[in-house]
Write a structure and sequence with these properties.
flat; YEATS domain-containing protein; about 20% strand; Immunoglobulin-like; 5 helices; 8 strands; alpha+beta; transcription
């Protein structure tokens, strides 16, 4: 995974400290074993417990270990030679506060993880943890529902650690990303402006090899997923209605996000257009260099002709 450079100047804390949870004064907060440990309190006499009445089926279950149903085994079965990928984008957008800026509070910024096509990532992502600079109050921020983002304000640039946790049927491992917060524009882009933010985004793809059948069925028609065709010999029943998928009941895409106008477009069509434009620029530059070389090659011939005319 791509990593940003090391952190630079620290930022200031911008949020009030979170309230501390009050202790539970109810007797339930005290362990029941404390009364038995008190020598002043006599232990109650043991009481005979009535024997539970069990049916023959319940007695059989008590004596034999239970096996998971066959449907559960099938759902957890992994599909070999199959990979599911989710293109993602993570980055920051920062705005200069202009006249409202102070020495220790000059920018407002947002850090986020989104789908490259602005679809709902909660189909695979359970929660995202953002690790801010230690100077912030509560620097470890947990976001458990989309959009997976947080906004803060400060004056310094630093590296933000972003950790993605997935649903149990997706992946048991976490994914660590790192992004360098950038507040100030490059010199060639002009001075700071309150209307034009500094946008830094990174494109990447999360690849899940050998997904389970349940995971494959759940996301095979999801617009954020890149799902291949199954190898020959593997057939799965069609997925159920989209309304029954638990992680898609609530809309969590970023298509109508307030900052979507500043999002970079990482679609294949857009990349092809950028490559074509870059190719034209390279070809024009090559043609210009060839003209300059031809002019340089012609200069010695002219000087030789002049010198020959003088010698005669």
């Amino acid at each position: 995974m791509p990593q940003a450079s090391s952190s630079s100047s620290p930022a200031t804390a911008a949020a009030p400290p979170p309230p501390q949870p009050a202790a539970d004064p109810s007797p339930s907060a005290v362990p029941a074993s404390e009364e038995a440990l008190d020598p002043q309190t006599p232990a109650p006499p043991p009481q005979a417990q009535p024997e539970a009445v069990l049916t023959a089926a319940q007695k059989a279950l008590r004596s034999k270990p239970t096996r998971p149903p066959e449907d559960s085994d099938k759902k957890n079965k992994k599909l070999k030679d199959v990979e599911i990928s989710f293109p993602i984008v993570y980055g920051t957008i920062s705005f200069w506060l202009g006249k409202k800026a102070s020495e220790y509070n000059s920018h407002k910024w947002t850090v986020y993880v989104r789908s490259a096509t602005n679809e709902d990532l909660s189909v695979i992502v359970k929660r995202v943890v953002f690790q801010l600079h230690p100077s912030f109050t509560n620097p470890t921020r947990v976001v458990e529902q989309p959009p997976f983002e947080l906004s803060e304000s400060g004056w310094g640039e630093f590296e933000i650690a972003i950790t993605l946790y997935f649903h149990s049927d997706v992946c048991e491992k976490r994914l660590d990303l790192f992004h360098q917060l950038k507040l100030y524009p490059e010199e060639d882009t002009g001075p700071q402006s309150t209307k034009k933010p500094v946008v830094v985004e990174t494109y990447d793809e999360i690849v899940f090899p050998e997904p389970t059948e349940a995971f494959f069925q759940r996301v095979q028609n999801h617009p954020a997923a890149t799902v291949p065709r199954l190898p020959p010999g593997i057939t799965l029943p069609p997925p159920g209605p989209m309304e029954l998928v638990p992680h898609e009941k609530k809309r969590g895409d970023t298509k109508d996000h307030p900052l979507s106008q500043w999002f970079s477009n990482f679609s294949e069509a857009d990349e092809l257009l950028k490559l074509a434009a870059a190719r034209q620029q390279v070809q024009a530059h090559i043609a210009k260099l060839r003209r300059q070389l031809s002019m340089i090659d012609g200069m010695p011939q002219q000087s030789k002709a002049v010198s020959g005319a003088r010698s005669e």
